[in-house]
Amino acid sequence: MTTLSFTARKIDRIAEHKTPMLVVPMFEDHVLGEDLDRIDAQFGGALSQTLALGDFSAKPGSHVALAGNKSIHRVIMIGCGVAASFDTAAQHKFAETAATAMAKGKARDATLNLASLPVTSADLGTILEVFAKHVTMACYVYDATIAKPKETPVLKKVTVNAGAILSPAKTKGPLGVGQAIGEGTNLTRNLVNLPGNVCTPRYLSQQGRSLAKRYESIKTTVLGEKKMQELGMGSLLSVGHGSDQESQLIIMEYSGGKAKDAPYALVGKGITFDTGGISLKPGMKMDEMKFDMGGAGSVFGTLQAIADMKLPINVVGVIAAAENMPSGRATKPGDVVKSMSGKTIEILNTDAEGRLVLCDALTYVGRYKPREVVDIATLTGAIIVALGNLATGIFANDDDLANALLDAGNKSNDRGWQLPIWDDYQMQLDSRFADVANIGTGGAGSVTAACFLARFAEKYKWAHLDVAGSAFSSSPKGATGRPVPMLVEYLRARAGR
Ligand code: BES
Ligand code: MN
Ligand code: ZN
User: Fold this and answer.
1) Does any ligand 1 atom lie closer than 6 A to the CB of residue 354?
2) Which CATH number do you get for residue 470?
3) pTM of the entire structure?
4) Would you say the CB of residue 382 lies under 6 angstroms from ligand 1?
């Protein structure tokens, strides 16, 4: 994948600018305006005639492409609605529509003219960020395991003119942030889309090492099964027992803050394939269980984005990677294992494996004395029943942290919704043969899963994101890259940026 390049430039006479594609905002109640009047005249009145015909409404979300001339090959008009109602939602819609039109077009170079937008410089900053994120995401293609890739986007270079609203120097920042978030999201999508025979626990370790190679600010350490045995991670290790792939604990330390600053921790579920183990899943749609490392994938994407943004905080990403397979050596229902915390666990269902790998990773991360810990996991089918694909499930033992994640989700349009982890649910996890059972007795499956994790996260402020619904979609089948935008926004707010 080639990277897009974004350039900020002040263009005084847009009608005299040469570009294969000029993208302009169009309001229902503005008749062209000075700049576009000139382009219109050059094009023999094509813009005004298109508007007069009434086919292009200029409503938010609409766009139309017009053939141009030798210096401006085409003009794309992006609908912005009525100028007086150009609020945050309409601004985001505009940025998204412009981005998609540019990425889907057949021009390598494109210019976005924002000089005439009726917005403040602060609003324009957000628009630029949303725009850069969406163009970057719209240019993503999965080709890792495809011999003959289908049509790929041709857009390479984007020039943005913010006129008098923002100087080129100030335009660059938001474009860079948007691109960093878009690229982080794309990295996550790519990893999560990879099939289970390619993306194994060891493959994820390689990804961690390659991040460390690419960023001086990231240091990666990998623990194999022997090391984890020594640490007493009997719960995590029990998940990979039936697999020929070695389980891995991948630790990535991002240092953007002062050496003594306590880090924020991200803990990802990295089940590279979930057959259910001896509690085997039905065959229908089992292929989708290659997405069961979505939480881990989002940790890689988030770390890459914040390293690109050089956020002035410390963050440690921990990934618990294993493959859940049935075999003669696999864990059986009723088996009791001992976790790193010392608590014993009765595994009543080997398909509730995510919490088994996460609990040991949560104990491990305690050694960093983290400020806050957020785990991300495709943990339960029940969260899809509750929230569908729109919202990520949020659980937390700290209200301030829950609110920070909710806010970050709203701001980045990668939304979450909070569910309870009341103590009253805990008794569902009582076991006669161990300190805790790995499944509840019935009902509120996502809540009891979170309650299980809560028992291993008592020493710090902790939140759990259940992304089984939001991390991938069944049609069209593929990874969404969520919740990278939410996580980056949360860390940004924590960094005061
Ligand atoms: N990885 C699954 C959860 C999942 C289901 C993710 C569907 C995405 C789509 C998880 O490991 C699992 O199997 N959970 C069980 C828990 C149950 C055994 C208590 C589930 O949700 O059925
Ligand atoms: Mn499972
Ligand atoms: Zn799973």
Assistant:
1) yes
2) 3.40.630.10
3) 0.97
4) yes
**Whether pLDDT at 202 is above 60:** yes
Residue whose CB lies within 8 A of the most ligand 1 atoms, among 273, 346, 355, 380, for a mutation test:
380
CA of 207 to the centre of ligand 1 (A): 25
**Quick one: 335 and 443 in the same domain?**
yes
CATH number at residue 63: 3.40.220.10
Q: Which atom of ligand 1 lies nearest, measured to the CA of 438?
A: 19
Do 115 and 248 fall within a single domain?
Answer: no
149, pLDDT greater than 90: no
Q: What is the SS3 assignment for the chain?
A: CCCCEEEECCCCCHHHCCECCEEEEECCCCCCCHHHHHHHHHCCCHHHHHHHHCCCCCCCCCEEEEECCCCECEEEEEECCCHHHCCHHHHHHHHHHHHHHHHHCCCCEEEEECCCCCCCHHHHHHHHHHHHHHHHHHCCCCCCCCCCCCCCCCCCEEEEECCCCCCHHHHHHHHHHHHHHHHHHHHHHHHHHCCCCCCCHHHHHHHHHHHHHHCCCEEEEEECHHHHHHHCCHHHHHHHCCCCCCCEEEEEEEECCCCCCCCEEEEEEEEEEECCCCCCCCCCCHHHHHHHHHHHHHHHHHHHHHHHHCCCCEEEEEEEEEEECCCCCCCCCCEEEECCCCCEEEECCCCCCHHHHHHHHHHHHHHHCCCEEEEEECCCCHHHHHHCCCCEEEEECCHHHHHHHHHHHHHHCCCEEECCCCHHHHHHHCCCCCCEECCCCCCCHHHHHHHHHHCCCCCCEEEEEECCCCCEEECCEEECCCCHHHHHHHHHHHCCC
Is 424 found in the same domain as 306?
yes
Catalytic residue among 290, 355, 482, 492: 355
Indicate if 355 belongs to the active site: yes
User: Looking at residue 2, what is its pLDDT?
Assistant: 65
Range(s) of the domain holding residue 424: 186-494
* Domain end marker among 163, 198, 222: 163
| Residue 81 CB less than 6 A away from ligand 1 | no
260 flagged as catalytic:
no
pLDDT digits (tens, 9 = 90+) for 80-133: 999 999 998 999 999 999 999 999 999 999 999 999 999 999 999 999 999 999
